[in-house]
Structure formats: C-alpha cells, structure tokens
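Quick question, first post here. What does this chain look like in 3D?
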Amino acid sequence: MKKAILFSTIFFCVMVTSQTATVDISHKMCATEVRMNEYYKMHPESKKLTEDFNIQLSELIKSGKINSDKNTVYDIPVVVHVITEGSALGTPYNRTDQQILDWIEFTNQVFAGTAPNILNDTNGGAVIPVKLVPAKVAPDCSTTNGINRVDFSVNTQFIQYGVNSAAGYNGVHEDVIKQLARWDPSKYYNIYIVNKLAAGTFIAAGYASFAGTIPFFDDCFVIGNVVNNFSTTMAHEIGHSLGLWHTQQGSSGNTCAPNSNCLLDGDMVCDTEPMIDLLTGTCVTGTINNCTGVLYNGVEQNIMAYSSCTDNRFTQGQKTRAIAQLLQFRSGLLNSPVLLTTPINNSVVVTPACVPTALAGSNGDHHTGISMVKFADINNYTETFNTKNSQF
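> Answer (accepted):
Ran it through. Tokens below.
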C-alpha cells in the first residue's frame, strides 16, 4: 500500500565516506537546531504545539498503543530547485537532471535499507517507509520531471556568499530564493540546491524545518556538492523533517544530555543511546561511550549522529517517531495530485447521467423538497411547485 504525502523541512546535511578513513566533516555540519531555535523564538505557538505532541507521543509509546503499518510506504512529492550562479551544467553547483534523480533514488534506498552498507529491519537497523518522488505536474498543470532550474547569476551577493537563513549577514536571505522559485508547499516538498549556505555565522551544508512549521518556512536547502549517489545527506535532512533530532541532542561539549526519560529527553528516542558531538577525531566504534559507561552500541553510526564514523542506520525507535510525526503533521498533504502522470483537466465537461423529466401542467399540486417544518410556534410549509410564494 502506498500513500502520497508532502511536506517541508529545514535542516542541514550529512555526508560520510569511510568508517576508518578521515571523514570530510564539512558535509556533516548541520544547522537544524540553530535554524529551529530561531524559528521557535518567532513562533512560540509552534513550539508549544510540538511539545504537546511529544508528550502525547511518549504516552502512546509507553502504553504500547502505537504501531506502524509495515506495508505502507508514504510517497513525498518533491521539486528540486537548482539555483545556479552561472556554473556549467554537470558541475557541483549545477548538477544534471540525471545526477539529481540518481541522488533522490539513492536516498530512497537509504530509507528502504537497500543501499550499500545500510542496515534495515533484518540486521539491526530500521526501514523508514517514506519515498521521495519527483513531481510529475508543475503548478501551471504542465508536465515536469520535478526539477526546476533558476539562473541567479545576476546577483553578486549570491555568487560570492550564497544563501543565509538569517537576516543581516552576507549572502542572499533564504526568503528571496523562496519568492524566486518556490512551488505550492501544500502540494510539493521544496528542495533548494545552492552554491553556499549558512545560518547566521554557522557555515553548513544544508538545513530544513521540522513538521508543524508554517508553510513558508517548510522546505530544505542543501549545497550542490552533497548531491551524489553515495551521500546520506538527504536522508539526514528528511529525518529532521520527520521530527528526528540529532542523536547528541541536549549535549554540550563533553557534557551528556539528560536521560531520565528517554522519550522526552535528548533526541526523544529510547534505542539511540546518549552521546556527545563526535565529529572531531577518529571513529569511536569499539570504545567506551562516556555517556553510558559501556561500549558504543551503534549510535555513533546513526544517520542522525554527529560522528566521524560511517552513517549506516536508523533505529526502530526513530522509525516510530518519524511516522507518528508524519501522520500527525502531514496527514492533510496525503494524496497530492502532482504525482499523477496526467495533469487534471478542470475544463472537461461532464456528461449528465440522466435528464430529469419536466413536470407537466400549470396547476400541479406537487410538493418539492421539504414540505413542512413545524417547531414550537414555527409552522412553515411549501406551496405547490409553481406558486409564487415563499418556498424552501
């Protein structure tokens, strides 16, 4: 069974290469927390909505009343906006259509646990039952491959500094890009590929917003050099959009996050052990996790982790939280028409199934519709069908 769903998010990306080799951590710098903290300051009502849902979800999980349909895959209609600074087609900031489609397909394989070295339900990981599907219908009802190209080489700020999510910093504010290219967020999940990206002074590879944010804020930005068919970047991003925090959420430096209630503390997932930011140094697999006092048990290889290890898994707890968030905040976006192969033609004239027979005669005694309403002192009734008095 498949269900279509749209949604949008703001978060920054992750890319890993080798568990034993040095990892290029520039592709692991994620500004989701920075971006969402700013958003919640502007929209405290949205933060309250999310907090209330987290409490409800924790109670459902503890009661054992929550479960997911293993046979359902949720299709997410996406449009990828390639905002170019004038570079040639096929270069890092102006990927070809096929490179973008391969990137999306690889991300789907990560969710399905079928990508190389990615764990799934059978070997210690978890399948996240979502699928990114390029839109087939554009806003003007023409056909599309889900890729929208915009040449922004006329803007020198964009060429030199790229995009910034905050006002008052170098770079073009993200709102300018949205106004330039955005498609209806109630029908499409908007992904923007740009040359450079930052949140204030935080240089990052991408960002997206959690579910439950206002529509204009609900999208994802990434830099072009993470668009490839070996990066877990977009899976990390979609994880954020489904309500998954970094696994080190709540930690600070070498101080571990509180963990008295694993459903509400840290990343709010019980099968991702507490950890700290591990981006510096080498992979810590086989060493003691100072937050638990025992060997690391896989969290260092989680797709939502900050770690110098190869990302290779989601967990069952993350799956439960992700699908619950998706159904809570994205349920109204199921069944988007933009995934239909043939655009809907609203000008089609429908042939009537039958033509009612006209009443004959000029003095009929037929009642039409409701013939009488009597309630207390109210006593209304209809005249015959051809009488010029008040009717209902």
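The radius of gyration is 26 Å.
The chain has one domain: 2-255+311-339.
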